[in-house]
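Troubleshooting entry. Yesterday's outputs looked truncated, so today I'm pasting the complete records for two proteins to confirm everything comes through intact. If either block looks cut off, that's the bug. Protein one:
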Amino acid sequence: MSEGFGTGHQEAAAAAAAAAAAAAAGQLGEDTILVHGDGDTHGDYQWAYGTIMDSSRVSTCLISMLLIVYGSFRSLNMEQEQREKEKKRQSESMNNLLTGEPVQPEQNKFATLDTMHALCLPLGASISLLVMFFFFDSMQMLFAVCTAIIATVALAFLLLPMCQYIIRPCTDGNRISFGVCGRFTAAELFSFSLAVSIVCIWVLTGHWLLMDAMGMGLCVAFIAFVRLPSLKVSTLLLTGLLIYDVFWVFFSSYIFSTNVMVKVATRPADNPVGIVARKFNLGGIVKEPPKLNLPGKLVFPSIHNSGHFSMLGLGDIVMPGLLLCFVLRYDAYKKSQTTQTAETGVPPPRGVGSRLTYFHCSLLGYFLGLLTATVSSEVFKAAQPALLYLVPFTLLPLLTMAYFKGDLRRMWSEPFIIQQASKQLEV
């Protein structure tokens, strides 16, 4: 029996759906495509201001960082809630040993990537990209419908905390049964209704802001539910995706006579409403709906330059976001371990208590990498593979910091294995 968007098995379904969308929506493209006019530049100051401080560029940077921070902290909160439930379940199981009543095991709501996943993901992304490139016209109806369904679930997950805050004074938090569909709270139903409404309006209008909202939901759901278990898996995954990104942006045109990544990311799909209307000869009744840009990217128009915009692939948010979520969990783990060792009188490990955490270091690196990608796209006047800049700027400082703090060996293999500190006995 599913437990709704907030807890239980339905969250795992939402995570799997978001992950499938992020991997298979091909247009996810790990590339940053920043399109701007040439403009008139007078001196270095004007050029820097027009390039870096354009509203679309600033929006791209701020929104992507906010999504990573929000998704990472929400994932951490979900993990802490699951740990508390597990402790409660264990205490209940001890009590039920006396009564003989069975205890339902707590289902794991997170999907953890292993080494094989990290190695195969770039290959799977390449296959998805080629499928989108060659068969988009014949499969665009399927792509649009599947994307709309998956984005609805992910957007409902994104809106759930806000809906809980709004609905809390009006309800008692009890779940409503919908038979085989599961049991849901009023907040979960409210968030799902809002998500369905947003997706329906997007289908009818094709507005970029609604597409961005759906893309944000996919990013947050992916970061919150998908886990990287170690720095080794993180390094393999990001390195493989960096190679994938560089190849399809820079070298695919030599094989396919066009930039496959840019082609897929910018190709609009026919509106399902229009396809159904043409099939049943309803053209005179139903107004021709606009083509749809599938939510595999975030698009930010420029306020000052009409018709110009910046575009960032969701993969450029999700993949570094998984790394930042990993280091945030490790920071929280080290903090908890420090508290436990302090109670036993053992001095804290080296590096504990530093103001600059691994999460701060990686987030700063992500900002600098995105800034470098922005400047590069303006210098070369062409689409840039953002992971070419984001991966080194996030991964290398993290590896260096872990080495000097003495955590590299542990973070590389088994960072979350709890090691009990041995108490020293005085004779």
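Protein two, checking that the full record survives here as well:
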Amino acid sequence: MCRSCVINMEGNNNNNKVIFESSLDDNATANQTFASTPSSSTSGCVSGDDTSEGKAVIPASLVTAENYLTISEEAQTLTSIEDLARAVEQCKEMVLESSECSEERKWLVRRLIELRLRLQEAREAAEDAQDCHQEVRVVRGHHFTLQSQPAPTTKHHCDRCCGVIWSVVHSWYQCVDCKYSCHVKCLAQVCRVCAHVKASENPTYIPDICPELGLSAQAYRCAECKAHITFKNSWVEPRLCDYDGRYYCPSCHWNSTAVIPARVVHNWDFEERRVCRASKQLLRIMEKRPVLKLQQLNPRLFGFVEELSLVKKIREDILVMKKYFVSCRDAIESRLLWQLQERQHFVENVDSFSLQDLIDINSGELLEYLEKVQAVFVKHIKEDCKLCYGRGFVCEMCDDDEVIFPFDVAAAVCQKCCTVFHRNCWTKKNQQCPKCVRIEKRASLRRDSTSSEEDNLSS
């Protein structure tokens, strides 16, 4: 073969090689346009027989102008929470629209998992950044955080200088526990102990009604900031706090009003009276805490207020029903006792009340609410649940086959053995329980047999 032929053949081969390589480059570019890089941790979550090529290449049937940013490589540039949330919703819609067990659905599910993970990471990063910006400063038990978000519709006042806090202009701090607010310049002058700290260290109310001692006991100074106050020729007006009985200056006493616990317990008086700022914050924090033991503070109140005695009776019935629910699977699964989760002390004891409980009793809201809850509990025991119904009682003192329960109005319960009888039968038998009588007889027979055996052994 001549040299020229060899050169022509090599040239043709080189041309073919260039054409082939260029075609490969075009195909690679096309595949790169529709490529995806799902995370390796989620690529195998959909199907175990997917190939690496199926994981990397986007099905061409999915690419449209509307969803290009959701499924293409450009989706990696989505960093904001709003864009990622929008992409997740769009991807979910595409999954529902795709056919089952198809390559498109498999790929979309992997993409959805990846987008959700990125959305969760973005949210956590935003929360961490927000926590870093919220510097907490502790002053006299307060946990102050800098309020950087302007709220033009909300008007705040500084608890230290009584000045208006313009959130658009001023920087200010607020306690996360008691909501004490102050300017940045007033932070070093805070002299009030956090009401949340007081409520945690001593969770009780002052039992006396306005225990006033007079200005002389305070050395004619404000009980909080120690400013001079007097009724004689003074621009600083002494103001009495009806809760703790001490006098304050106008900067510490804003004539705020609140219900006084001692007046409620002793007089059933719910009229709001003027209190200082510290007492106002303390009463607000303590309002829903069940710290009032009415049976110890004023037992006569139950006979004076009919609604209070009815609430106490319902609470006693709820404690009895609780014994049925704690051993009932249906009651546990349906979370019946969770209907009282806002007043958890109602399923723990009978005599603990919060100030909010007494306020709701006076308005009639609490009694109505407890009657509805009681009706649901009774319906479960007597009608819905056979297990709870089977734990009822039949009166041994009469021939009536009616099943009765300890929480029934016409039922009487033996305090020794907890057996239930009709109240009329219990009264006619002079409150003598036949079950207790049988137990006493068996115990006496056992004692007699034991003593006779001992006599035989000794003889």
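Both blocks look complete. Sanity check on protein two: The CA atoms of residues 258 and 443 lie 60 Å apart.
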